[in-house]
TrEMBL record:
The keyword Lipid biosynthesis is annotated on this UniProt entry: no
Official protein name in the record: Flavin reductase family protein
Record-annotated Flavin reductase like domain positions: 1-98
UniProt cofactor(s): FMN
Family designation: Belongs to the flavoredoxin family.
Keywords: Flavoprotein
Pfam families according to UniProt: Flavin_Reduct
Organism of provenance: Chryseosolibacter indicus
Amino acid sequence: MKETNECVIAIPGADLAEKVVDIGNCSGEDTDKFGKFRLTAKEARHVKAPLIGQCIANIECKVVDSRMVSQYNLFILGAVKAWSNSDRKEQRTMHHHGDGTFKIDGRTIDLRERMVKWRELVD
């Protein structure tokens, strides 16, 4: 992100939990993560970073503020496009507690008709 000022936030399904942990425990500097973990790179519309085909959703982002990077390693991102993969059988998301445990979600409520301000992000 420091070089390109853009990234993709990929949201994996609960079925990918073990793979997510394994991916997070190796470095992209010496590992081709797409190859090693058999991930499918898909072309994004607004950024150069690839989408991950196996994920439930991908969010293309651009850095809008980097003033806190040196002190907190914090980038402020703006979403420019969101993608969802409704073809995936597993649609539950997971949330990391920060200690190696995860919470799995299940129930979905549909409020798309209320998303008038952000419609351009989700088509």
